C-alpha cells in the first residue's frame, strides 16, 4: 500500500513511473517471501485499517505456496483488473494526451517546491513586519490591501520567466554533438517526436545552424519531455523541522540532458523554422579523414569536432 512504501515518483526510470509520464497505468507490486520460509514480523501500527490499508497485516510464517498464492490473487489479479478497467485504450488516457498537446501550445506553469518555498518566505516576512507595526498601522494596511493579498501570492507562482517552455533547441555546433544525437535517440525510443533543422534559422534573436535538433512540447508525452530537460527540484522532506532529510528509497530523480552534458536552449515562446521530422533514429553526419601522404599518425581530440557554421562535417587531421 502507498503509505507502506518508501519509494516516490521522482525516479522516472522504471516501468511503473515511466508509464505515468506517458499517460498510462503503471503498477508496482511486491510480495514478501522466498522459497525458504520466512516469518512475517508483527507491526502494531498496521493492525488498524486505514484508507490505503483495508486489511491488517498478519504475523505468520510465509512459505512458498503462500507466496505463490499472493502473487496469483494479488499481483496477477490486480494487473488483470487494470487491463479490464482500461478496456484497451482508455478515453481518459486519450484525453490526457490531448491535454498535453494543448498545454504545450500555450503558457503554462509547473509549481515546484522552490516556488512554494519562496511564497512561504514572503508570507513569513510579512507576518514578522506586521507584528512589529502597531495595531492601527496594521489595520490600515490590511484595509487598503483587502482582497489583493491572495492574488499577489498567486502571481508569485506565475512569474513569466518561470513558465514552462514551448520547446527545446539543441544546437548542432555544440562540441559533442554525437552525445546530443544519442540523447535525442533516447527520446525517440520513448515515443518523443524530434525534428531536425534543414537549414539555418533564428529564434528569439539567436541564430542556429542547420542540423540542430528541435523538441517541441506540444506532444502527447509532454510530461516525459519536461522530465528529461528540466532540473529536478526535490522538496525539503525533513524528518522534523530543522532535522535531517528523509532518505529516499531510490534515486531522488535525475535529468537526462544534464547527466549527458547536452547543451540546449529553453524556448518560452512559440517558434517555427525549416524543421523536418527525424525518422526512426537520428544519425550524425559522417566525418572525414583527410589523407596526407606524409602522415605518421592521427591525433584525436577528447571531444567531437564540429565546424561552427555546420556546413561541413567534422574532419580528422593527419
Could you give a short account of the major beta sheet?
5 strands, antiparallel
Oligomer: single chain
User: How far do the termini sit from each other?
Assistant: 63 Å
**Average pLDDT, to the nearest integer?**
80
Q: What's the number of extended β-strand segments?
A: 11
Low-pLDDT windows of residues: 144-148, 305-318
Q: Helix share of residues?
A: 25-40%
The assigned structural class equals alpha+beta
Q: What overall form do the CA principal axes indicate?
A: extended
Tell me the fraction of residues in β-strands, as a range: 5-15%
The strand order across the widest sheet is 8-3-7-4-9
Rg from Cα: 27 Å
Task: Give the count of structural domains.
Answer: 3
**How many helices does DSSP assign?**
9
Element-by-element helix/strand order: HEEHHHHHEHEEEEHHEEEE
Description:
- The protein starts with 14 loop residues before the first helix and ends with a strand.
- It has helices at residues 15-20, 64-86, 91-103, 113-132, 135-144, 149-156, 177-189, 222-229, 256-259, and strands at residues 38-39, 61-62, 167-170, 195-197, 201-203, 206-208, 213-216, 265-267, 275-277, 288-289, 315-316.
- It has 318 residues and is an alpha+beta fold.
- The chain contains 9 helices and 11 strands.
- It is 33% helix and 10% strand.
- The radius of gyration is 27 Å and the shape is extended.
- It folds into 3 domains: 2-103, no CATH class; 113-161, no CATH class; 165-289, no CATH class.
- The strands form 4 sheets. Strands 8-3-7-4-9 form a 5-stranded antiparallel sheet, covered by helices on one side. It has a two-stranded antiparallel ribbon with strand order 1-2. Strands 5-6 form a two-stranded antiparallel ribbon.
